[in-house]
Design a protein that fits this description.
The protein has eight helices and 25 strands. By secondary structure, it is mainly β.
């Protein structure tokens, strides 16, 4: 299982903050369990998060809530919208294994109490809405509403390293209309640009992965920016043109793509992915045939984005060698999503991704 850690170091200038990320692997068995357990969020639910993706890849880092600050680590997820942490009132086993929020210990706490329920693959996590001061990346953000969770069922949250989740999608998919945490930064003038960007290094053991709040870092891409308008302000959903594999077209029309940092791989409906994988063929577990596999080309905003096998094959460290797994995974996403794919970390490693809320668009540039 790879896990991403947000360091405490950051550079702030002109309302832009740059946060370096690094990642840690766990055991091969835990990594492979992802493929057996994958449960994607039900895309027509209000705030659904795939537990298995958090088992596999977690962008997480420190925040604090309250005065004085109470520290937490949270997943940064562009595929959900709610900020939540465990409550000190929680009696689930997972809450005893993580930091919990104690409203009585904060002088800036404001009671809300609205019931909150977030649907997951194995049951709902429940709690209520609270309001307090958020500290994130050196910024003090006032009057932030968040979920104070009193029930975290199942074993997944027990094993999860982060305490909670910080969603970075749109308010339209937020439970009970809670504003996403990032929007507070912009509205309170803490960042000058209503946008953020994720850069992931191509090598899992290589330092340099970065989350930038309030813009993007021009040194992390080749400058060939292409901006694609959002199809809807829900998930980071855009229209997608043709898909070809080794020059062979995938049949279908009306393709769409979701850019999601909370999904490790390249996940789509079986209608699309089964065609892709039929052309790709078998990916050797010992990685011996990577160079012989075809390139997958995706058209986004009129530009063709190539994914060679080195990009879409997931190479998992296994002692002194690697285990290779095809990153294209089929999972039917729900009614109306038959022509949709989720472009997760494997795509974002290849193309620096800019999430521009201010202009309702996605920016893509070849990552350096």
């Amino acid at each position: 299982m790879k896990i991403f850690v947000l360091s405490l170091f950051f550079i702030a200038a002109l309302g832009v903050i740059e946060i370096p990320l690094s990642h840690i692997y766990k055991t091969e068995e835990e990594q492979y369990a992802y493929f057996k357990l994958i449960q994607l969020r039900r895309l027509f639910g209000a705030s659904n998060v795939p537990l298995s993706n958090y088992l596999d890849a977690q962008y997480y880092g420190p925040i604090s809530i309250g005065t004085p600050p109470q520290p937490f680590t949270v997943v940064f997820d562009s595929g959900s919208s709610v900020l939540w942490v465990p409550s000190s009132k929680c009696t689930s086993l997972a809450c005893y294994m993580h930091n919990t929020y104690n409203s009585a210990a904060s002088s800036t706490y404001v009671k809300n109490g609205t019931a909150l329920s977030l649907e997951y693959g194995k049951g709902a996590c429940t709690g209520f809405v609270s309001q307090d001061t958020l500290t994130w990346g050196g910024f003090t953000v006032k009057n932030v509403q968040f979920g104070e969770m009193t029930s975290l069922p199942g074993s997944t949250w027990v094993d999860s390293k982060p305490d909670g989740i910080l969603g970075m999608a749109w308010i339209s998919i937020s439970a009970d209309g809670l504003p996403p945490a990032f929007t507070y930064l912009y509205k309170q003038g803490l960042v000058t640009n209503n946008s953020f960007a994720f850069y992931l290094t191509k090598n899992a053991n290589q330092a340099g992965s970065t989350l930038t709040l309030g813009g993007y870092n021009s040194t992390l891409s080749k400058g060939d920016w292409n901006y694609i308008p959002l199809y809807k302000q829900e998930w980071w959903l855009i229209q997608m043109g043709a898909i070809t594999v080794g020059g062979k077209a995938i049949s279908g029309t009306g393709f769409k793509a979701i850019l999601d940092t909370g999904t490790s791989l390249l996940v789509g409906s079986s209608k699309i992915v089964n065609q892709i994988n039929a052309i790709i063929g078998t990916v050797a577990e010992d990685c011996s045939n990577i160079s012989k596999l075809p390139t997958v080309n995706i058209v986004l905003g009129g530009v063709t984005y190539a994914m060679p096998p080195s990009a879409y094959v997931w190479q998992i460290p296994n002692g002194n060698t690697y285990q290779c797994i095809n990153g294209w995974q089929a999972d039917d996403l729900g009614v109306g999503m038959e022509n949709t794919v989720i472009l997760g970390d494997l795509f974002i490693r290849t193309y620096y991704t800019y999430f521009d809320m201010g202009n309702s668009r996605i920016g893509l540039s070849t990552a350096v």
